[in-house]
Specification:
Length: 91
């Protein structure tokens, strides 16, 4: 990550998108990086939100993502890393 010593070029790989997105090009989305981190693509908000955040630095940004995307991300991550399917069962 930025400021952590060696500047390894960042490469992102699509992980998942909000299941309520209208089409493939719609956001928000999550991307995995080659540096053990995540990039969040989402809707931009203005200064009225920025001033409410703790210690937002000049080189930092923020995006809002939906609860549905967070839920999907957690389910996919847990299944991938721990082999546990958290999907609701039918019946």
């Amino acid at each position: 990550m930025q400021g952590s010593g060696a500047a390894k070029p960042i490469t992102v790989t699509f992980f998942c998108k909000d299941p309520d997105s209208k089409d493939e090009e719609d956001c928000p989305s999550l991307y995995r990086t080659n540096r053990g981190s995540w990039v969040v693509q989402g809707l931009r908000h203005g200064e009225d939100v920025a001033v409410q955040l703790r210690a937002l630095k000049d080189d930092e940004s923020f995006v809002e993502i939906s609860e549905a995307l967070v839920e999907r991300f957690v389910r996919m991550y847990v299944k991938e890393h721990y082999g546990v399917d958290l999907s609701p069962t039918s019946g």
